[in-house]
Amino acid sequence: MTDEASHLFYQTRNPRPFLERGEGIYLFDESGKRYIDGSSGAMVSNIGHSNPRVLAKMKAQMDKATFGYRLHFRTHPSEDLAAKTAAMTPEGLDRVFFVSGGSEAVESAVKLARQYALTQGQGSRYKVISRFPSYHGCTFGALDLTGYDPLREPFAPMMEGMPKVAAPATYLDRDNLSEDERGLKYAELLRDRIIEAGPDTVLAFVMEPVGGASTGALVAPDSYYGRVREICDEFGVLLIYDEVMTGAGRTGKFLAAEHWGITPDIVAMSKGFGAGYAPLGAIVAPARIVEPVLDAGGFLHGFTYAGNPLACSAGLAVLEELEEQGLIENAARMGDVLMDELRGLMERYPFIGDVRGKGLLTAFEFVADRSTMEPLAPKLNAYDRLVELAYERGLIIYSRRTRGGTAGDHFLIAPPLIITREQIGEMMAILHDALDAFAE
Ligand code: PMP
């Protein structure tokens, strides 16, 4: 940053250099210094920077019209993007509603669920069960679903009565159960919570299929996913997958849900869906949920910029690139390469207690002691230090304090899906260097 005060503020004052340009997996600041975008921003830039197809498609749309309000005109980019999204998501998810970001997508999913329940004579259902830790956004509704107390408490009370249930952080469990049994154990916690809340008051359960900012790429045991689907069906609870971070190919499938053959009732997407070219997100749902709402007078919801033709032209080009360049398959392949490299870190650095992830959404976690998994963060402020050491060396990684905000340090490594094996090597060399400096 400069010496002068800035008129701009976000969460904090921003000491970072000015961004000049991006190219593929790299970003350059104004001094010409190059950075590997090891977290795709905040898991956003899935197809890398300055993609020529996306830029060309956006420029062509700009020459025609950048905005036409959706209630005044249909547009080809929005219709085409909706059709392509429906084609790329599991069968049955074929109605698409556009938004401009992840929090908006989560809010939209919950409001659609609520209106659907009303059309079914189930007005008593309003509670949305979510998990802790979790992150679902910063608007009041999405924040109230977020299982992260330090972000929520200053704003309480928000929506009343939203129960939480533990996310399966099985790497912290010290029991004699098999992974399968652990998955089922955590799923049963959801069943208990539904019964406790009163099944006829529970509208939906919302979960990140692979944890993101909150839990650091936490994947549940395979048995968890199917059992959660069954439990939701048993009680008529709608299953909402928050795929804001995992969607659009990040985990090696278009939706993470596909890894377990799950069809959620509503899916929220953003981040990689616009891939940094446009603020864009969507909810995708089956006709059986959307049509009754439209028949009953319409969805009482919508954001002014939603589905604008410029954003949708970007989104359409992003999905075309994913498909034609085989980037989702590349995410699966390179995810395996990256995971092997991260496992190697555990051998070299005793303060790395766990590595995990799916596809190119991966993470490692710092601990003071591997046998107890006691976190390292509170003692050493490790979280900020490693991020800075990597940044100085030209690698951007993403970190959050975790475990419900009490402790823990995880670092997300989630490069653009275009990354090559050689570039993973380049990224790991910088990471090793930063970890060596941290260990000193
Ligand atoms: N859900 C998940 C799973 C996310 O990771 C995020 C963003 N980190 C959001 C919702 C909120 O998205 P946005 O910041 O675009 O509102």
UniProtKB/TrEMBL annotation:
CDD domains the record matches: OAT_like
Pfam families: Aminotran_3
Domain of life: Bacteria
InterPro entries linked to this entry: Aminotrans_3, Aminotrans_3_PPA_site, PyrdxlP-dep_Trfase, PyrdxlP-dep_Trfase_major, PyrdxlP-dep_Trfase_small
Cofactor(s) needed by this chain: pyridoxal 5'-phosphate
UniProt keyword list: Aminotransferase, Pyridoxal phosphate, Transferase
GO molecular function: pyridoxal phosphate binding; transaminase activity
Entry similarity comment: Belongs to the class-III pyridoxal-phosphate-dependent aminotransferase family.
Descriptive protein name: Aminotransferase class III-fold pyridoxal phosphate-dependent enzyme
